[in-house]
């Protein structure tokens, strides 16, 4: 009986998936925090504020050690995820304005 060594690429894929999930969670929390303060915000301004907070390292309490590249497509994907989950909504007369 011979045991095969663990495949390294599977561990790397799991670690990468975990990192992407943590990144999405951080961005979703940051989006929610910004919209709670602002009440309503144009989607472009929201993306700008999230990206600025990521660049400055203002990710919130306990998250200052995280550093990752934040792109507009990442933020927009999280916005769509939160819209689908029902945490955010669009104004009917102005669909480009988001509310928490």
UniProtKB/TrEMBL annotation:
<dbReference type="InterPro" id="IPR019559">
    <property type="entry name" value="Cullin_neddylation_domain"/>
</dbReference>
<protein>
    <submittedName>
        <fullName>CUL9 protein</fullName>
    </submittedName>
</protein>
<dbReference type="InterPro" id="IPR036390">
    <property type="entry name" value="WH_DNA-bd_sf"/>
</dbReference>
<dbReference type="InterPro" id="IPR045093">
    <property type="entry name" value="Cullin"/>
</dbReference>
<dbReference type="InterPro" id="IPR036388">
    <property type="entry name" value="WH-like_DNA-bd_sf"/>
</dbReference>
<feature type="domain" description="Cullin neddylation">
    <location>
        <begin position="19"/>
        <end position="96"/>
    </location>
</feature>
């Amino acid at each position: 009986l011979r045991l095969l060594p663990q495949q390294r690429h599977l561990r790397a894929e799991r670690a990468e998936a975990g990192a992407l999930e943590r990144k999405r969670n951080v961005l979703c929390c940051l989006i929610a925090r910004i919209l709670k303060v602002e009440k309503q915000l144009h989607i472009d301004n929201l993306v700008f504020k999230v990206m600025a907070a990521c660049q400055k390292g203002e990710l919130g309490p306990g998250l200052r050690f995280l550093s990752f590249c934040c792109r507009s497509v990442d933020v927009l994907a999280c916005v769509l995820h939160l819209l689908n989950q029902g945490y955010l909504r669009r104004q009917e007369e102005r669909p480009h304005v988001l509310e928490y």
